[in-house]
Write a structure and sequence with these properties.
single chain; mainly alpha; 8 helices; 63% helix; 0% strand; globular
Length: 150
């Protein structure tokens, strides 16, 4: 019986002709590709007159669109360097706590961040004639789902 198990495992490890093994954990390291800035990052950078390179670095680190907006707004409202706010965030401090430390009204900051997001999404959605038509259709179609995740 043990020899059947060993023989079966050997065939499975060889992939039984398929090149895959049930014991393959997929632990081969995949090459990590650089995350390039999308149109949103470019428009955000223009909106706040920031360096594209700085925003691209944050984007590549994994900061999302809403996170970037919050970082920028906190920095702008407190006259603190963006890097200072970024360091706090990277130490694991929540945005609500950062806002509190700087004596900012976090719920108001969130509302402002949502408004900025809508403004940028609108600008992008209407930046081409085709996109403009799609945006008009979305506005006039009552059943069109609102999708905030791009």
């Amino acid at each position: 019986m043990l020899s059947l198990f060993i023989a079966g495992r050997a065939r499975a490890e060889m992939g039984a002709g398929a090149g895959l093994s049930p014991w393959d954990t997929g632990s081969k390291k995949k090459e990590k590709q650089a995350k390039t800035a999308d149109t949103f990052i470019r428009v955000l950078t223009d909106r706040f007159q920031l360096k594209l390179e700085d925003m691209e670095k944050l984007w590549a680190k994994g900061y999302g669109r809403n996170e970037l907006i919050k970082l920028i707004l906190i920095s702008a409202h407190t006259n603190k360097e963006l890097k200072e706010v970024q360091r706090k965030r990277e130490r694991g401090v929540k945005f609500s706590r950062i806002a509190e430390e700087y004596k900012l009204d976090y719920p108001a900051l969130l509302e402002e961040a949502k408004a900025v997001r809508r403004e940028i999404d609108y600008k992008i959605s209407t930046s081409t004639p085709a996109a403009n038509e799609i945006y008009k259709i979305r506005l006039t179609t009552p059943s069109a789902p609102e999708n905030d995740h791009h």
